[in-house]
Design brief:
81 residues; mainly alpha; rod-shaped
Length: 81
């Protein structure tokens, strides 16, 4: 009976006998949900940035390799075609 009275009054016990209002818990839950949404958004942006950075690095490696090949071509044959 005591439990139902506490529940209907809008508060209940958590942990070491501390009483918190349900509204306060709902507010905290909303804040956590918003933080989770923002975190997912940031993770998505980070993933896109990392993919772009990785592609840029791959492109740079390819261009450097091509430059080295052209330099080799120049030295071996005298001119590039």
């Amino acid at each position: 009976m005591e439990f139902s009275n506490r529940w209907s009054s809008g508060s209940f016990l958590i942990g070491k006998g501390k009483s918190m209002k349900i509204e306060s818990l709902k507010k905290n839950l909303n804040i956590l949900e918003e933080n989770q949404r923002q975190l997912k958004e940031l993770q998505s942006k980070l993933t896109i940035t990392m993919k772009k950075e990785r592609q840029s690095h791959i492109d740079d490696k390819y261009l450097n390799k091509m430059s080295v090949q052209k330099i080799g071509f120049w030295t071996k044959y005298g001119k590039a075609e």
